[in-house]
Design brief:
Shape: globular
CATH architecture: 3-Layer(aba) Sandwich
Strand content: 5-15%
Number of domains: 1
Helix content: 40-55%
Number of helices: 8
CATH superfamily: P-loop containing nucleotide triphosphate hydrolases
Order of helices and strands: EHEHHEHHEHHEH
Bound molecules: P1-(5'-adenosyl)P5-(5'-thymidyl)pentaphosphate
Strand order of the largest sheet: 2-3-1-4-5
CATH topology: Rossmann fold
Radius of gyration: 17 Å
C-alpha cells in the first residue's frame, strides 16, 4: 500500500521545539544550534509561533499588538489558527523532506500561557492542541527555565514590551509553574535547561539532549 507522506507517522525529519518564559534566551540558543547542526551537514529549518506563515504573521500582529482586551478563548483560538496553518505550510512539509525543524514555541506555550496563566485549564487546552496539531508531536522540547523577573528584564533591555509581556509578574510566575508541571509529567520529551547559565553553557546543555536524537 502506498503511504501518505502528509501523515506524521511517515515523516522523516526531526521536530524540536523551544519553550520558556519571556526573554529566556530561545532565539539566542536556536541561532547557535542552527549553526552547529548546519556545519554537521543537517538540513535545518527554523520557524516560530505565532507566525511562520503569511496568515500566521498577520495573526501574530493581532496577538501581540492589539490594543483592546481579547477574550482568553479568542486568544487561544488565534494561537491555534496560526499553528494549524504553520503545520500545513511549513512544519509538515519540512519534516516530510527529512529536515530538522527548530520551532520557537509550540503546543506547550498554549498549555502554559492560555491553559495555566489565562486559567482555561491545562488539560482542556492540551486536548485542543492535540486536535489542531494532528499528531505532530515534537521529538524533543527544550524548556529554558528562568525566574520570570530576570527574563522580563532581559526582554525589556532587548525591545519594547508586547501585549503578553506587559502582564503582571504573577501571570508570568504561573507560566513557569505550568512548564515545570509539564516537565514533571513528560520528562522523556520535555527537557529542562537552566537558562541562568551563560549562553555558551546553555548551548552545551541543549546539544547534549539534541545529540541523543541522531
Ligand atoms: N504565546 C505563544 C502564547 O501565549 N501562546 C502560544 O500558544 C504561543 C505560541 C510570543 C508571545 O506569544 C505567547 C508567548 C509570548 O508572550 P515572542 O516575541 O515570540 O512572543 O516572545 P518570546 O518567544 O518570549 O521571545 P523573546 O525574544 O522575548 O525571548 P527569547 O527568544 O526567549 O530570548 P532571546 O534569545 O531573544 O534573549 C532575550 C535577551 O536576553 C539575552 C539576549 O542577548 C537578549 O538580549 N540573553 C541572555 N542573557 C544572559 N544569559 C543568557 N543565557 C542569555 N540568552 C539570551
Amino acid at each position: 500500500m502506498t503511504q501518505d507522506p502528509s501523515k506524521p507517522s511517515n515523516r522523516r525529519g526531526l521536530f524540536i521545539t523551544f519553550e520558556g518564559g519571556e526573554g529566556a534566551g530561545k532565539t539566542t540558543l536556536i541561532e547557535q544550534i542552527v549553526k552547529s547542526l548546519t556545519e554537521s551537514g543537517h538540513r535545518v529549518l527554523t520557524t516560530r509561533e505565532p507566525g511562520g506563515t503569511s496568515l500566521g504573521e498577520h495573526i501574530r500582529t493581532i496577538l501581540l499588538q492589539h490594543k483592546e482586551p481579547i477574550s482568553p478563548y479568542a486568544e487561544l483560538s488565534l494561537f491555534l489558527a496560526s499553528r494549524a496553518q504553520h503545520i500545513l505550510e511549513v512544519i509538515g512539509p519540512a519534516l516530510n523532506e527529512g529536515k530538522v525543524v527548530l520551532c520557537d514555541r509550540f503546543n506547550d506555550s498554549s498549555i502554559a500561557y492560555q491553559g495555566a496563566a489565562r486559567s482555561l485549564g491545562m488539560d482542556k487546552v492540551s486536548q485542543f492542541c492535540d486536535f489542531v496539531s494532528q499528531g505532530y508531536t515534537p521529538n524533543l522540547t527544550l524548556y529554558l527555565d528562568l525566574d520570570p523577573e530576570v527574563g522580563l528584564s532581559r526582554a525589556a533591555k532587548a525591545r519594547v514590551q508586547d501585549r503578553i509581556e506587559s502582564e503582571t509578574v504573577q501571570f508570568h510566575r504561573k507560566i513557569r509553574e505550568a512548564y515545570i508541571e509539564i516537565h514533571k509529567k513528560d520528562q522523556k520529551r520535555f527537557k529542562l535547561v537552566d537558562a541562568t547559565l551563560a549562553p555558551e553553557q546553555v548551548f552545551k546543555e541543549a546539544m547534549t539532549h539534541i545529540k541523543t536524537l541522531f
